[in-house]
Amino acid sequence: MILAAASGLALVVFAFNRRSGAAGVDVHLGARFFRDASLGATAAFLLAAPLFTVDRRSRHSWPALAVTIAGWVASFLLSMLLVRALLGGASVSGIAAVSALLAVYAGLALGLGRFAAVVSSDEISAAFWSYVVLAVLASGPVLFGPWIQQADGAETAIEALLLVSPLVAVSTASGLDLMRTETLYRWTPVGQMRFQYPQWHSSFAFGLVLSGLLFGGALFSKELRTCAVSSGS
Amino acid sequence: MRRLFWVLMLGSIALAGARPARAQAASASGGLSKATRAEVLASIAKGLRYLDEHQKPDGSWESDIGISGLAALAYLRNPAAPDTIPPNVDRSLAFITSNVKPDGGIYVRDLSNYYTAVALKAITAAGEPKYAPIVDKAKVYLASLQVDEGEDYTKSHKFYGGIGYGSDLRPDMANLEFALSALKDSALPSEDPLWQKALLFVQRTQNRSESNDQAWAGDDGGFVYYPGFSYGGDGKGTQSYGSMTYAGLLSYAYADVKKSDPRVEAALRWIREHYTLDENPGMGLKTLYYYYMVFAKALNAFGEEVVVDREGRSHNWREELGKKLVSVQYPEGYWVNQDPAWWQDNKVLVTSFTLIALEHVLGDPGREHASK
After folding, report:
1. Phi, psi of B105 (to 5 degrees)
2. Which is more confident, B121 or A232?
3. Is this complex's ipTM strictly greater than 0.85?
């Protein structure tokens, strides 16, 4: 279902780009499709993953979730390799980098859902806070860029925001200069600032560490609750 | 005797009156006064000393290909420089060429058009035969960035013929001007189809409905950032503004469009209407020093020595710009913009822009070409 949603999103973005003529200067149709599919898959993964873990009574075991994520990523990887074989354009290293990032961001979203489930009163608020955090991470450069533009150390600050954004990491790995695309360049000052996009493995490492912290935090909070309940009884 | 006295008297009055008038005529016909020329030369020397002090051990400035390329250009076009390449520029060129990619581009990851274009200009200006293979490949790379049939665009598309940052979704006038300038410097033949394709994009960024087929096109002759979008005014419409108008005019020069061409005449008309050195017209202080650079390059390229503004005042732009830039130089030798947008809080970058502008104030450094 997730893969279908990702493919659907990718097709919508691709069709929009073709129709509006906003398509890129990259030579290959395949490269363009890869870019759009990568962004579509990221959005779908980030939207879907927390739903598996926000429910505290969820019957999904961790190994089952790991296999599910591996399945999504493998499907993406194989379909992109197929597109590459048919249309060309995307590089194998780019496809591998995006796949690795998708895996870690799916893990991050699961961890966030789990942590939110432990610290929230119900599933609805857990899901709500999970999405708020993901939205802030993803759109941080656009949200905070205008504020930090005039500040000292603006370059470091904007690079930090770019590092933590899943959308930036995936778009950069897929060959898209996201902050200088027509819409974002027009409506935010970020593209006018001096910065270097993060290397994909830096974003990957950040995602991995944050996922670990979230899972650890969830476990710790759960332990604390259990202790509190035991001592209360 | 008395008659002779009056003849001599009247003659000397006439001569005395004619002297300032002749001096005024020289000023009105353009060119730099001796005093300003000396000040500009001293200012350039001071600016170059500042750059010297801020070069990194690896030969770069700011560890950045683009800034290093512009700084190197400032040295290479210094009219007071010896014919040999200064050792610090040699080290800078070594840094720049260490970033050559297998595709021919000269960049790290982002901004591949800007970096390759500026790097190509610098290594072309150096004129060293050892760089010839790099120049050839970089030209091919820049040309490959042009949006055309290869990217599934037809001639009717608003972006056709443009060049953007390199890996993003849209071309713009500033990126295109840098690319065309580099391709002109490196002698891309004038019969190459790239020029005609580029002209289509240039026309579509000009507010001139006779040559711009876009519905939004106005008729003031100025330029916008890319077809349908301008940073000028409130940044939401298609208002012409200074830096892009000079960049557009320069692009016409690179493509060998003559000064008598109506598209060029329209741009020059806009320039006369909006002549100022106090701001980038339509943008305030934003990108002011880039504006000064393209201002000097464009007027130099088209041999406009005097600009008559909307109130009928004549401006000897070389004299005025020279004095202006000398007056805003900091004692340490650098220039910097109060508005930080588009990296103009970077002293090395802004100093390089300004030095290049001053070198054009002094006369044609021999790299900009226009059909007059």
Report:
1. -70, 160
2. B121
3. no
